[in-house]
Write the structure tokens for this entry.
Amino acid sequence: MIIGKAISPFGIKRRNGTANDVDAQAFITASGISGTEATAVNTLVVTLKSANIWTKMKAVYPMVGGTATTCKWNLKSPIDSNGSYRLVFIGGFTFSSTGALPNGTNAYASTFLIPATSLSASSSHVSIYNRTAGSGTINDWGTSGGSLAFSTAISLSGTAYLDCYNSTTNRIATANADAKGFYIGSRNSSTSLKLFKNAAQLGTTNANASVGVASLISPLNLFAYNPATNYSNRQCAFASIGDGLTDAEALAFYNAVQTFNTTLGRQV
Amino acid sequence: MINLKDITKEQYSLYVGLLTVEQKDSLILQWYAPDCYFNPIQDINDNWVISVEEMANCTNDEFMWVKDLPLIIYEPKPTPPL
């Protein structure tokens, strides 16, 4: 007697006869998405694997499905647990097919990812796809510990900031008139910190040395700093955390995410 | 007194729902919608408040009273420097 359905390790076949990627299918099953969204997620995973970026990701948030229950999942590990970095939404949000919109008053998402234990002082990145510009003093990502910070603050009064393990001498602060776009803050070595916007590097490389991540024992927040302040009011259509990316990898990542959001009709 | 029914969605960001300390305590770690949790904060006058989105989107039967909270103009505490 057969009880339940066996799931093939090679994925589930789509209508055209090709199977979804196994990791994409796990996310599709967990989130319950279907149709164009499922197809776009599958293409994204296949593209990231082909570009050798997938293994550098620790948390990937496609922000699909239009509800908190669909947007919370980590594509890298779609398990409903803190240890899998599933998002918990705190405060006021509005969810739609174009992403997650925090209210800028008291809303953020906890990732449960602690830099001290999950990231490296010489290799880390965060990314965010901002569909709207927002306003005010905003941290798109953030956590702190002692004198260290790991945060992004895009287009505050026309300036974008990136801190990554040395906020005293390591901060990138560069002109940026429009907060909309896909941003990647990447540390690819202990002496190279870069901020990318869409297909290009934004500002100059900061070559001051990282001073480590050991004191960053609080989880990285999305849409606010930690402790929670500087709440975002920008709609987000993708975000990720992981190892550092090279220039070529950052470009490939942008192309993959832009294609993903274009497929979903929500690109900027 | 202004209530949730008196404002439009475009006005949500202007207002917050005013809580008593007891109400604030009762909301901590409680969900207002699937996978979304209340987050009472203090405004510049140290009033405990929640956002209008939390009030409007609340589906938790235990806390439907938040929809009847009086609304006040939101005056945030100064944000710390980046």
User: Anything to note?
Assistant: Residues 1-9 of chain A have pLDDT under 50 and may be disordered. The helical segments of chain A are 22-31, 35-50, 68-71, 115-118, 247-263. The CA atoms of residues 119 and 243 of chain A lie 7 Å apart.
